[in-house]
Amino acid sequence: MKSLVYKDTGKIELVEKPMPVLQSDRDAVVKVELSSICTSDLHIVRGFVPRANKNIVLGHEFAGTVVSVGAAVKNLKPGDRVSANCETFCGECWFCQRGFVNNCENGGWELGCRIDGCHAQYVRVPYADTGLTKLPDNVSFENALFVGDILSSGWWGAEICEIKDGDIIAVIGAGPVGLCSMLSAKLQGASKIVAIDIDETRLEIAKRENLADYFINPLKDDVCKIIKDLTQGRGADCVIEAAGAKNTFELAYKIARPNAIVAVVAMYEENQILPLPEMYGKNLTFKTGGVDASKCRELVKLISENKINTDFLITHRYKLDDIVEAYKFFESKSDGCLKIAIKN
Q1: Helix/strand/coil for 154
Q2: How far apart are CA 5 and CA 119, in angstroms?
């Protein structure tokens, strides 16, 4: 089968590999119908993920059709249409039982990092009952493509903000995860949402999709002043940092009000500095780390009920045969690219 393999830093290649087979009675083999490229895939290719194995098939964001299941898989059968969780988790360990599936003692970020991922025609999914979500008939592969990764990331980012009625939420970054954070924060009860990005096109998308109430470009506007003006001088009740740029972590704690929560959803390529003397007395709570994508079934239900729609995130489409070119295009972030759908 055709598979995109990470060979070494900066080098990927579309090659032929054998079809995956069941290795455990909790496995499933899935035919990949539609997949997408994630920024974290680029982090692997650039060499910023030391735990990633070379010569593995990249990719962890996909939807497809179940081909075979192990004897212990109870909730799925061949022919079921599914979306995939970006994380592999057993559902039974201490962390999983508390919803911290990113820290599963038997899994974590495995697909496309430690084991072969979805940028292929077929993929083996460990712990299939927890790693795959069955799709209702009215939810298409396209509708569900982002459930287990960027939509889960946005939902988690909003959830850990502990949003209360009347809260004003600032979201730094209007890329795919930031946009998903905005729609999630709105569904979770935010009063007002402030979108912050240096890309006017992305701010326009947030406006077009009615995901935010205020739109700020740091290249043109004084972000701190505007946030204070919107909040009677206090600062944002919660800040979701979904950009991961050089100065966005600093911006996040500066625009947060005292006693606010700063949710860091972004993945950085460099260490960030926490200037405790400067922040002394502000009493901020920082929540950071990889997404705990434990709400996939709830998110699919919301999609089925037409309360969430992420189809607008797909701005470009490629075939699997052209996936190397798709990676180059996605990395360039040109032509208003948000997310690419890869059709097998």
Answers
A1: helix
A2: 8
| Alpha helix stretches (DSSP H) within 259-322 | 276-279, 296-304
- The answer to whether 181 touches 265, Cβ cutoff 8 Å, is yes
**Do residues 188 and 81 both lie within one domain?**
no
Q: Average pLDDT over the chain, rounded to whole?
A: 96
231 & 258 share domain: yes
Is 142 found in the same domain as 86? yes
Q: Alpha carbon of 72 to those of 60, 196, 296: distances in Å?
A: 23, 46, 21
Which residue pairs, CB below 8 angstroms and at least 24 apart, start in 244-251?
A: 244/173, 244/268, 244/269, 245/173, 246/270, 248/172, 248/173, 251/172, 251/196, 251/218, 251/223
Q: Locate tokens 């899935």: which residue?
A: 30
Residue 180 clears pLDDT 90, i.e. is over it: yes
Residues 206, 120 within the same domain: no
Mean pLDDT throughout 134-157? 97
* This prediction's pTM: 0.95
d(Cα 289, Cα 103) in Å, to the nearest integer?
Answer: 10
pLDDT in tens, 181-227: 999 999 999 999 999 999 999 999 999 999 999 999 999 999 999 99
Q: Give the domain extent around 117.
A: 2-149+292-343
Asked whether residue 290 carries a pLDDT value surpassing 90, the answer given is: no
Same domain, 30 and 17: yes
- For 150-182, b/e burial (b = at least 16 CB within 10 A) is bbbbbbbbbbbbebeeebbbbbbbbbbbbbbbb
Report the CATH number at residue 228: 3.40.50.720
Residues 64 and 90 grouped into a single domain: yes
For residues 273-291, give the mean pLDDT: 91
CATH code assigned at 303: 3.90.180.10
Indicate if 251 and 196 belong to the same structural domain: yes
Q: Which are the contacts of 150, defined by CB distance < 8 A and separation ≥ 6?
A: 38, 61, 176, 177, 180, 310, 313, 339
Which SS3 state, helix, strand or coil, does residue 182 take? helix
Q: Distance (Å, rounded) from C-alpha 131 to C-alpha 300? A: 13
